[in-house]
Amino acid sequence: MMGERTVAQEALFYGFSLERHIPADHMLRSIDRFVDLSGIRDHLKPFYSETGRPSIDPELMIRMLVIGYCMGIRSERRLCDEVHLNLAYRWFCRLGLDGAVPDHSTFSKNRHGRFRDSDLLRRLFETTVARCMAEGLVGGEGFAVDASLIRADANRQTGGPGSDGLPPDADNRAVREYLAVLDDAAFGAATPVVPKFLAPADPASRWTCAHGGQAYYAYSTNYLIDLDHAVIMDVEASTAVRQAEVTACKRMIERTQDRFGVWPERLAADTGYGSAEMLAWLVHERDIHPHIPVFDKSARRDDTFERADFSYDIERDAYICPAGEELRRYWQEGRAAKEELPADGLYRYRARKAACDACDLRPVLPQRPAAQDPALYPRRRA
After folding, report:
1. Which of 105, 293, 313, 347 is at 20 to 30 A from 228, Cα to Cα?
2. What is the pTM of this model?
3. pLDDT (tens digit, 9 = 90+) per residue, 257-277?
């Protein structure tokens, strides 16, 4: 016989416990055991007024941000909705059943205000790293570094040529932040090259198509990772150009050494970090062994000779061109004793003018240096 659910009169009182309804193996229970936010209020106290209406508890906002990070909730508006509806989220945020969830605009105001001014998120990140070190999850011998592109909130159709600069009437928070970091080596001063396009809505972002396909405005988020258990030791945002990412790598290594006293023996990275300047900094200034492919753009596309066509004689410190002629740094006797390191750090090897003038291979000699390789090509001596 088919049964029918009997709807009884609603009870006036209910006995309900969030603690009993959250499974023991829920991920947030595992995280909650290691979350200690007791120092947040003391850290933020100078950034709050002594008078006025009580603010939203900063610990509540941080716990909500932890949920968003762990559960992949990128929208703050959606995060507020999820915390309002999900019992496990309410338990983790200490809201109970009837606790009010803050408005999504509260996050934006605090992120661009107190949290940024107090560097709170950096403090929380370093506290997490210190806890990982205390638990033995950081080896500290080998690090890896890489950058990921983060798409900027800028319409690719509204930008203009970078040579035109910003419109005279451009005045918003993004523009003010862009002007503030023009001299920062990780942003405006990363390269003297003028950006191809500039977005008035977010001028600090950079036009890029590094991932292939359609270009867009983006930033780079740079990570320094310990190789033992893939613990992120440091993170830094930069504009999306290679030079800025190299600068961010140096800053992260220096900051990790200053904050945690960790001095890695080796660093792994891709070719983007393999410039001569970066490799010299690692080896000579930081005593770190680079496991990085050398950044080499000596290959030529104009059917002229490239660096691989010249052989080096280490005993005579000379290059031999395809015609068998020598290229030296100097030809007069006594010049070696007077030689000083060039201002740009590049030694130039030149052939004799008479040998070049009589050579049948002159038509296939490069007329200008290859990118990043201005020293190793036969330039005639005037």
Report:
1. 293
2. 0.73
3. 999 999 899 999 999 899 888
Give strand pairing partners of 143: 226, 267
Per-residue DSSP letters for 105-127? HHHHHHHTTHHHHTTHHHHHHHH
End-to-end CA gap in the chain: 108
User: d(Cα 103, Cα 64) in Å, to the nearest integer?
Assistant: 12
Which amino acid, 2?
A: M
For 53-85, give one letter per residue: b (16+ CB within 10 A) or e: eeeeebbbbbbbbbbbeeeebeebeebbebbee
CB atoms within 10 A of CB 229: 12
Helix and strand totals (H; E) in the chain: 14, 11
Binned at pLDDT 50, 70 and 90, residue 381 comes out as very low
